[in-house]
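Project standup — Tuesday

K.O.: blocked on the structure for the chain from last sprint. Re-posting the sequence here as requested.
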Amino acid sequence: MKPTTEEPSAFLSEIDQEWIRIIEDWRHSGETIAEWVRKQDQFSYDQFMNARKRLFPEDIKRSDFVEQEITWSTVAVTLPSSTIDLHLREYKLVIGSGFDQELLRELLEVLNDAD
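H.V.: unblocked you, prediction finished:
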C-alpha cells in the first residue's frame, strides 16, 4: 500500500505523514532531488533519501541508476617547444630553458675562436 497525502494512514506517525507531504512537494516541484533539497533548510539530502526509501521503496529501484561502460582513450599531447636555435656560421646550438649562461658564453667563445 503506497501512502499518499490524499489518504493519510492511521498507521503512520505524524513524522512519516510530514515526510510524505515533503516528498509530494518535491514531486510537484519538477526539480531534481539535489536541486530541491538544496533550497530546504529543515533536513539534509541524506535524511530526505532515507525517508523516501522507507516510505516509497518502490520508487528506489535499480533502474533509477544508469550504468555506463567507461572506455579510456590514449591522448598524445605535444607541448610547445621552449628552445632557441642559435646559428653561428656552420654551427647550430639548440638552447633549452634553464640553460647554463656561463657554459653558453664559453661555447660561443670557442666557436668564435675556431676560425
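K.O.: great, moving the ticket to review. Helices lie at 14-29, 33-38, 45-55, 101-113. DSSP finds four helices and two strands in the chain.
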